[in-house]
Design goal:
Number of helices: 20
Number of domains: 5
CATH architecture of the largest domain: 3-Layer(aba) Sandwich
Strand content: 15-25%
Largest sheet: 6 strands, mixed
Shape: elongated
Structural class: alpha/beta
CATH class of the largest domain: Alpha Beta
CATH topology of the largest domain: Rossmann fold
């Protein structure tokens, strides 16, 4: 699709129904006609035809036909820019459709986009980005059901390394302000629980009420933020969402989208292709049209999404190749640069391949256009940049590295280490920062023979490894190794276990998602979700080294493949690995087979690259789980772990612990691979030490 835009300006204004008019300006010509207001209560087809007749009466329609022909000849596209008077802005102009047997819908045609505009202002330049676009999803309390469909819809763009998504749960205005200050973003998607009111009195329900002026004031200090999308469920008032979006646009000149009248599945159906197109470098009006077209193909309310745009700001971003930087280890793949904004949630990436322009699947095919019976030509298709090759290590280098790793492992088994001491013979000790520790670690999960299946359970009073193995058809030594138990360790009642099954036995009670370790010890588990790049990882490792602390790092398979040296550094410094899926999808939407595949491929990559195992620790991306998925991951050899507090909540949690130290016992803290986390971590560790708490791994906090 050509980037050349021919603006077709439509102004709807007047005083009272008898004086409303439509004025059109394009290519140096003008036309006007009386405006016959449509009835917004009509059904979809009748409404779209009525809006089309109102917006494009005879003289205006003829001018549009002439401009469309000229655009076809010039290889350009038409952008219909709608300027509606305040008392007419609430009408659903996006439903404009002309024609009877061959409907023409400018709201869903990629060469006739429809946008709303406000005050004329100088358009800002596109924001240069070296790496993926960063999207923050801010979800109000009570709106969690909207998250999983949206995360699933964004999966392809995230897998492609084009989009990074952060999720802020239980959002209120204060939490949103703090999140934007800590981790700025390029795009903001707000999920409110409700929206009510009209004009400047319109408010979003975001924990508490927030009007357009308040939201605009909050966002004014974030110049890198270029798009705000507002959603609030199908029962919210669409005009209220539109009023808030219009206020943002008027006050800041920011591009805004209102998704009133859509349920969670429809919001996801719109946002998937829309955000993917933006992240691929498409103009935002074409991206929104992709979303509208996807809704139309699903027979959804394609005229519901509304876009506010300053003419000339269609290109929100320019994507530059990520410059190479030195890696701490020679075998590392090139990593993306330190970016000024954002940190991922789920997200799954091909990290070093951020700069490639990937092909984006089209949601629909547009036929020859017709305005009434007049042909105005075929739409000009968008041109995508040819994809460039990913800078991952070549297969031969991977094979060579694997061969060297195997050789080193064999040598270490044949030649016993002098540091082995009285440990298990033939097992090389893990690298450690404490040279005085000379005993080799006990066998770990990677040493467990492959069982028939697994299941997860919880230790009951009086249970021993022998009694559990006897009842479940397992093996005591395999149970101990798989669950990272110390030699002779007594099983604590309430402790979760993964049980490898080798022969017939009885089913034991299923382990739930674990949110706390041993409540009788002043231990706190440090856990980190690592999924995008390694720019902050080494700073985190250095902080842990300086405080002689160890943690558990939940990694995605894609991250391990992209940053093998960083993954090895985690293991070599004595930390644990956990499984965070391959591509960071919403597990409630991928099915049991998809879940097993995500876990297995991540485990394969981790073992191949680091020699370690992620079992038995797993964390659901986005915290998105179902009871069926908890059972599925148990049968794959994992227990799911949640958290007591995450990055944003840790400062408040520490204050609460100071008042009530008992609440910290066995806590599980969740942090991410972010610059803000790396900067705050030393302070967290000092504070815990002052409170008499010992930061440890998951293995330790479970004992």
């Amino acid at each position: 699709m050509s980037s050349a835009v021919i603006p077709f300006q439509l102004s709807v204004s007047g005083r009272g129904p008898a004086n409303y008019v439509v004025r059109a300006f394009a290519a140096g010509r003008g036309a006007e006609a009386p405006l016959a207001l449509p009835d917004p209560r009509a059904d979809v087809e009748a409404l779209s035809l009525a809006v089309g007749r109102a917006l494009f009466p005879g003289p205006v329609r003829q001018l549009l036909i002439d401009v469309a022909r000229g655009a076809d000849e010039a290889g350009a596209r038409v952008q219909i820019q709608l300027y509606a008077a305040p008392d007419l802005a609430a009408l659903p102009w996006e439903w404009a459709t002309l024609g009877q047997s061959r409907p023409w819908r400018p709201a869903v045609r990629e060469d006739y986009t429809l946008v709303r505009s406000g005050e004329l202002r100088a358009p800002p330049r596109p924001l240069p980005i070296s790496g993926p676009a960063r999207l923050l999803i801010a979800c109000a309390p009570g709106a969690e059901a909207e998250i999983a469909p949206l995360g699933h819809a964004l999966a392809d763009a995230v897998r492609a390394g084009r989009l990074v998504v952060d999720l802020l749960r239980d959002t209120d205005p204060l939490a949103l302000r703090q999140a934007l200050a800590d981790e700025p973003c390029h795009m903001l998607h707000v999920i409110a629980t409700d929206a009510r009111g009209q004009g400047d009195a319109a408010r979003l329900r975001l924990g508490r009420g927030l009007d357009g002026a308040g939201l605009a004031a909050m966002l004014a200090d974030h110049p890198d933020l270029r798009l705000v999308t507002l959603a609030a469920g199908a029962d919210a008032d669409p005009t209220a969402l539109s009023a808030v979006a219009n206020r943002l646009h008027d006050d800041l000149g920011i591009t805004a989208v209102a998704l009133g009248g859509l349920d969670s599945a429809q919001v996801a159906g719109f946002c998937g292709p829309c955000y993917a197109a933006i992240a691929a470098g498409d103009p935002v009006d074409l991206a929104v049209t992709d979303g509208r077209a996807a809704l139309e193909s699903q027979e959804g309310p394609w005229g519901a999404p509304r876009l506010w745009l300053v003419p000339g700001t269609e290109a929100l971003f320019t994507f530059a190749p990520a410059p190479a930087r030195a890696q701490p280890e020679a075998e590392s793949a090139a990593a993306p640069p330190r970016l000024p904004v954002g940190t991922p949630l789920r997200p799954r990436r091909a990290s070093a391949a951020m700069s490639r322009a990937l092909q984006t699947a089209r949601a629909f095919v547009v036929d020859t256009t017709m305005v009434d019976a007049t042909t105005v030509g075929k739409p000009v298709k968008r041109q995508r940049a040819a994809p460039s090759r990913s800078p991952f290590l070549q297969p031969r280098l991977i094979a060579l590295a694997a061969a060297i790793l195997v050789l080193i492992t064999l040598v270490s088994r044949v030649l016993p280490s002098s540091a082995a001491g009285e440990g298990e013979p033939g097992l090389a000790p893990l690298p450690t920062l404490r040279p005085s520790v000379t005993s080799a670690p006990p066998p770990g999960p990677a040493s467990v023979p492959e069982p028939r299946t697994f299941f997860s359970t919880v230790v009951a009073a009086g249970d021993t490894l022998e009694s559990i193995a006897r009842r479940a058809g397992s093996d005591p030594a395999a149970l101990a190794a798989l669950n990272r138990l110390l030699p002779g360790e007594t099983l604590r009642p309430g402790r979760p276990l993964v049980v490898p099954v080798y022969h017939e036995g009885e089913a034991l009670p299923l382990a739930p998602i674990i949110k706390q370790g041993n409540p009788d010890q002043p231990l706190v588990a440090l856990t980190f979700d690592i999924e995008i790049d390694d720019t902050s990882l080494y700073t985190i490792l250095e902080a842990l080294d300086a405080h002689q602390a160890r943690g558990t790092f939940f990694v995605t398979g894609r991250w391990v493949k992209s940053f093998p040296a960083a993954a090895k550094a985690i293991v070599s410094r004595g930390h644990e690995l956990g499984n965070h899926s391959l591509t960071h999808p919403a597990f409630s939407a991928i099915g049991a087979d998809g879940a097993v595949s995500e876990l297995a491929e991540t485990e394969r990559l981790v073992r191949e690259i680091t020699g370690a195992s992620t079992r038995p620790y797993f964390r659901f991306p986005y915290g998105d789980s179902t009871p069926q998925m908890v059972e599925t991951i148990g049968r794959a050899g994992y227990v799911a772990y949640h958290w007591s507090a995450d990055d944003a909540a840790i400062p408040a949690w520490l204050q609460q612990v100071a008042a009530d130290p008992a609440r910290a016992r066995g806590a599980i803290l969740l942090m991410h691979g972010r610059q803000s986390t790396a900067a705050a971590l030393p302070g967290y560790l000092e504070r815990m030490k002052a409170l008499g708490l010992q930061p440890v791994t998951l293995s330790q906090v479970l004992r």
